[in-house]
Amino acid sequence: MRTGVWLVGARGSVATTSIVGALALRAGLAGPTGCVTELPELRGPALPSFAELVFGGHDPVLTPLAKRAETLAAAGVVPGRLVAALADDLAAVESDLRPAPVGGTQADRIAVVVADLTEFRRRHELARIVVVNVSATEAAVTPHPAHADPAALAEALAGPDEVLPPSSLYAYAAFTAGCSYVDFTPSTGARLPALAALAAERGLPYAGHDGKTGETLVKSVLAPMFAMRNLAVRSWSGINLLGGGDGATLADPAANAAKVESKQRVLGETLGYQPQGDTRIDYVEELGDFKTAWDLITFAGFLGTGMRLEFTWHGCDSALAAPLVLDLARITAATHAAGRSGPLPELAFFFKDPIGAPTHSLAEQWALLRQHVTRLHAAAEGTDVPAE
Amino acid sequence: MRTGVWLVGARGSVATTSIVGALALRAGLAGPTGCVTELPELRGPALPSFAELVFGGHDPVLTPLAKRAETLAAAGVVPGRLVAALADDLAAVESDLRPAPVGGTQADRIAVVVADLTEFRRRHELARIVVVNVSATEAAVTPHPAHADPAALAEALAGPDEVLPPSSLYAYAAFTAGCSYVDFTPSTGARLPALAALAAERGLPYAGHDGKTGETLVKSVLAPMFAMRNLAVRSWSGINLLGGGDGATLADPAANAAKVESKQRVLGETLGYQPQGDTRIDYVEELGDFKTAWDLITFAGFLGTGMRLEFTWHGCDSALAAPLVLDLARITAATHAAGRSGPLPELAFFFKDPIGAPTHSLAEQWALLRQHVTRLHAAAEGTDVPAE
Amino acid sequence: MRTGVWLVGARGSVATTSIVGALALRAGLAGPTGCVTELPELRGPALPSFAELVFGGHDPVLTPLAKRAETLAAAGVVPGRLVAALADDLAAVESDLRPAPVGGTQADRIAVVVADLTEFRRRHELARIVVVNVSATEAAVTPHPAHADPAALAEALAGPDEVLPPSSLYAYAAFTAGCSYVDFTPSTGARLPALAALAAERGLPYAGHDGKTGETLVKSVLAPMFAMRNLAVRSWSGINLLGGGDGATLADPAANAAKVESKQRVLGETLGYQPQGDTRIDYVEELGDFKTAWDLITFAGFLGTGMRLEFTWHGCDSALAAPLVLDLARITAATHAAGRSGPLPELAFFFKDPIGAPTHSLAEQWALLRQHVTRLHAAAEGTDVPAE
Amino acid sequence: MRTGVWLVGARGSVATTSIVGALALRAGLAGPTGCVTELPELRGPALPSFAELVFGGHDPVLTPLAKRAETLAAAGVVPGRLVAALADDLAAVESDLRPAPVGGTQADRIAVVVADLTEFRRRHELARIVVVNVSATEAAVTPHPAHADPAALAEALAGPDEVLPPSSLYAYAAFTAGCSYVDFTPSTGARLPALAALAAERGLPYAGHDGKTGETLVKSVLAPMFAMRNLAVRSWSGINLLGGGDGATLADPAANAAKVESKQRVLGETLGYQPQGDTRIDYVEELGDFKTAWDLITFAGFLGTGMRLEFTWHGCDSALAAPLVLDLARITAATHAAGRSGPLPELAFFFKDPIGAPTHSLAEQWALLRQHVTRLHAAAEGTDVPAE
Ligand SMILES: NC(=O)c1ccc[n+]([C@@H]2O[C@H](COP(=O)([O-])OP(=O)(O)OC[C@H]3O[C@@H](n4cnc5c(N)ncnc54)[C@H](O)[C@@H]3O)[C@@H](O)[C@H]2O)c1
Ligand SMILES: NC(=O)c1ccc[n+]([C@@H]2O[C@H](COP(=O)([O-])OP(=O)(O)OC[C@H]3O[C@@H](n4cnc5c(N)ncnc54)[C@H](O)[C@@H]3O)[C@@H](O)[C@H]2O)c1
Ligand SMILES: NC(=O)c1ccc[n+]([C@@H]2O[C@H](COP(=O)([O-])OP(=O)(O)OC[C@H]3O[C@@H](n4cnc5c(N)ncnc54)[C@H](O)[C@@H]3O)[C@@H](O)[C@H]2O)c1
Ligand SMILES: NC(=O)c1ccc[n+]([C@@H]2O[C@H](COP(=O)([O-])OP(=O)(O)OC[C@H]3O[C@@H](n4cnc5c(N)ncnc54)[C@H](O)[C@@H]3O)[C@@H](O)[C@H]2O)c1
Ligand code: NA
Ligand code: NA
To answer: Does the residue D387 lie in any domain?
Structure first.
């Protein structure tokens, strides 16, 4: 069951690492560390294999993929020997990358994307395509009346205005081309009523937002710990220092704000109250693709005694994100195949700011994910899973 | 439903903090921060209220309880104003404390403990008593053939040998006197076949071991996080610096060894493999009742990229332990009242080294605990909870 | 040799802690931990004793000093027993505190301050007075032509404009009243040409700026360490989390900016280049008078190998600042007595942003300070110190 | 002025990194980051240039140097491109390495080392040789009467006993062959009366012990900071986690003990009292050549207020050590050339446990070093430096 993975931001760090990793897995040159779909609890027949994934994508930048992979190898993100060994496979993917459309109306650009997707499906005889947004984080969207309704939106897109931010434009194109959509960024993506309606109409699933890879991942287990123990979190302050392309983007206050907001949500929703303290993101070029996050949590125990926990996370964002991109592509494709449409809150496990936000506890998100994937496998095998 | 809480080590830091806290809660002078039985998910009619708890206990040391409470206030463990306000209540508890028995055979000492418990129940017209071991950690037990069998044990206890370590002697006495038993320490307690048989015979429940309050609490959410994300933990090293009475005891290598072993178990069992690295416990007198633990975790992500997480926990052990002691007393009493006997793996949430060790993931332990307590409440209300 | 210490911001945390501490030292109730003038290297006959210090000051706030001291005791900044024991002495100081003048022209307010100082000197038969600014940090000063010249300034002050920021107004009054001036804050103080001229004319010494108590103190030894070892600091990022009155003031971006700038100076000047990274100050009310600073330093060693150092400082700002305020008062008084006037770069040891900034290395500043104080003692004893 | 650098432990991590680095510097392929002799304060005519250094050494292990360099490159200690570019130069050094002598009496082995040194000097027409011990740390030496006196020692060495530990055997051989000696390890080296006498007799300088590269380097600036500020350090606890060859050696308790002792000395001697707490060294294989040290310092400020500082050092030991080995070789050779003999306390800057231990403050050690090197340059230039 050949499945397309169309990456918006295809030459970025996350995309390149995802592609190198999938090719390495296919070639038996690397193991699936970091891929949750390879855990015994999630593995099974419903998911397309790594070998069945075919990559393509859009990017405005034209640096060759092999060049980007070499840069990542020099930075210690991917092993240099893999990049060398996969030269031919990378060249093959290169031929499936397309420039991000520019000029014309937004409707014109959507048409280009739809044509690129359709042609990609035909060329590789794909059963289906998952469009995954891993492009640079956008500023928060400017509200527009046409966001409320598909008809109004279609009309507005044909006009001169930039009605949709790029992420939503890609979501629109994905749905139009019959593809599911995953947003790994905090950008708007499919989160507009008009796009939700479009996905429902076409029977397509979508998931997001903002891959949960670092400080927020740790928060999603520590905050429930304090809650389960009835300890009162008084303050939770954090700082994220990062370089890399994503860091450079986030040096822009508008993009930064979107990101910080999605990072803070987990606390208030898990604890039931908002502790004092802020999360900050600072760009430090020299840190490159490795991010250091430091968090200080002060809390009160029995009879008000003050205590504290601090942690330092030193992670490689792209190496954390890439296997999740592959997981999301596999699960979303299988979910699409199973006939499910609309938002997928069952995939909250992967996101900082999950659509539907059923819970922010990683353990509870894990239970939801297991149940969802188990059902996909059961359906694929024709067996039944009793409803819970 | 007046319920006795008999503390072995009644003048220690944990015991004193538990007593001060329960009296403060009863008097409305403090809230239940840190008490999980007061969370909406666990609150309910099956549990004795704080006002229904009556305290007594054994300790070889004779320092007045009020004096111990003042020392803890000076050290910042409990608020000084509470100790002052509760002077009369503390004096009342003082009259229910008994010296730890000395001399004679172990059977003689057991008889004293049984008599103390029986008299305590009579004096306060208690529905039942929970014996909670919060005394100093012992060295690992020396095996003895009589541990295998109640009859052989009864005979050996009447002889001159020290067949049982103190914790097991108290467990024996508790069961003989018809009391349930909770071990908050890493000591042997009821974990001997002969004692398990005795508990079964008398229809009494018991729980343990080693209250989970600091570094191991954090481990029990972080280790599952790495497991759920299929990240490969390469090393996990930790150091615990602590003063206080417990620290002084742990400066003894034998007691230290028992503690360290119960701390390491969570990793191997959660991850499915044992990462490199050790946990250390060092006594630093000046740190007093506050403990600082530092852990370094190195792990590999996708394609082998190395990353790291480090955390520093700065907690007040007694303030973390005391509310759990109250929780355990309430839940164990209710479980006893519900007619349940034998080991209680449902209480794993509270322990570093839980009996039966169903799982080391805090979130899964929490689910087990909720289910258990929900059923107790349902039974108490005469309603039914559907089996899962 | 009775010496007045006139505190601008006399009811603030630093001032109150300084007063409580000096009274406790005088009464033999506390030792001189944190006072560098009591180190063997600096102790000697030129310095007024603690018993010879007499306190007074201005503050717009009217909360009684004893009340402020109790608040600090409750927050763990000073021991409660000292505040209780010193009630009478605190009441005596209370009678020497004056409201900060309001209304009228700046010349009017200066006249009030001068009168208060003169009266204070007369009332207590003081040999001299050191005015120490420990009031809230101001925003950066707005340039004004009258700052350039004493005559122009005198004229402008009589007009309706707010020509001088409060700190400079106090410095003006101090010099006019024949007092030396120390600025423990990052505010402007005496750093205007007109004020420098005034000090020179009156033969008065002054020192500042911004007491070096936390993160910057650590920086002032770590940055020279990297320099001495020829290690290349690539980035140095820091975050300061603090509550308290000072924290609340710094939540204001303008005050924050002044402070951050004085914190960053040490790096560029010590290393000879400016590493990447910023210092941030965030207000977290719940942290109260204790500040947590976290710094991450990334550096390159031989052949470019990347390494890192991170530190967390958890300090009580007022407890760090107060003994330095006493040290500064003693040394500045002795320097004044020795006939020295103008700025005192020899006191760089105490400041984040030292006037004259001879060096930012703590060890070199220490050598300068020792030499200065040794000479004061030698002069006081009539012996000679050979020039170096 | 060609100068030999004879490395004992020539195939170890420190030695290999030193050689690769010196060759890279000579070839203009790398800059002198980490080399203090290239700082403006120390640079000058007395020191042999990097191009004038010629390397040789002993090691019992026979792994080719190029192989060791590749292993270090794979571990991220040295850049792989340097190792590739320097293949020929490494092969040249390879031809000057000799197996560590085995068998026979200690006198026989000394004779082999002396012959190897003499032949090395002749072969390369060296002005002089510095023998630098960078071999594995030994256990503490067993006292022997012959250690007291050169004559007794000479006699004992000819007998069957292992009178000297290996480091001292090399020091003996070095002095016998007219070479100066530097010990970068905590081993005994020249620290025996008989060896001191031998060095004096031959007019040879020597220096040591134990290169100061990580936790102790930081201690040597932080401890003076606390002392200069009259802050009372209550406890200082540390843990060092390291892999690599050195880590494997230190997993042996005897070697560990020697190292820990040399690490603790700095505190007691700088502060004037010994704070509570210990330093630990743990072997964690997976950390490889990178070491993580964590230290917790608790201290009291004014009026006893408790505060804390913690730091995490994450350094590459060999990359920190290697430039210092080159610095020591250059300075010791120049000191030898200047006619100085005996122990060199002026080189304390480089060592955890400096011979003569004039001070443990890095800043004061820096002043001593500057003065020493400035005089060497002045003498080399025929100018005079006024005595201080
Ligand atoms: N790496 C992580 O751990 C992580 C976690 C959560 C979210 N994310 C998000 O993933 C995204 C990618 O991160 P990255 O580190 O790869 O960043 P990156 O800067 O390396 O890559 C972004 C790519 O998007 C491209 N791009 C920009 N605008 C585009 C457009 N309109 N259409 C198509 N492509 C466009 C850029 O040219 C670039 O190649 C970011 O939004 C980031 O916030 C990453
Ligand atoms: N505080 C925590 O967070 C925590 C967590 C897990 C386990 N624990 C365990 O709880 C226990 C108590 O800790 P603590 O800090 O109160 O220690 P502590 O030293 O303050 O108190 C122990 C008390 O036990 C008494 N005791 C010693 N031998 C006894 C005996 N044979 N019979 C009766 N009493 C005896 C001592 O006299 C002392 O009063 C320790 O075993 C500790 O390991 C504590
Ligand atoms: N504590 C430290 O470690 C430290 C270090 C460096 C600098 N400082 C500086 O010391 C100053 C005092 O700090 P704090 O923690 O005591 O702050 P605080 O807020 O507790 O006290 C400041 C006091 O100044 C008074 N004040 C405000 N405006 C005034 C005016 N015009 N005239 C006279 N008094 C005035 C306020 O009423 C208040 O009582 C701040 O500027 C701070 O930045 C403190
Ligand atoms: N790297 C640092 O930061 C640092 C700092 C201070 C001290 N040191 C000391 O430097 C020494 C070297 O460290 P390393 O990391 O290179 O260790 P390593 O284990 O990589 O190298 C030691 C070498 O010594 C050789 N050796 C063992 N016995 C010998 C003998 N009798 N004669 C000659 N060679 C012998 C070994 O075969 C090995 O090649 C250690 O003693 C270490 O404690 C290192
Ligand atoms: Na830390
Ligand atoms: Na840290």
So the answer is: no
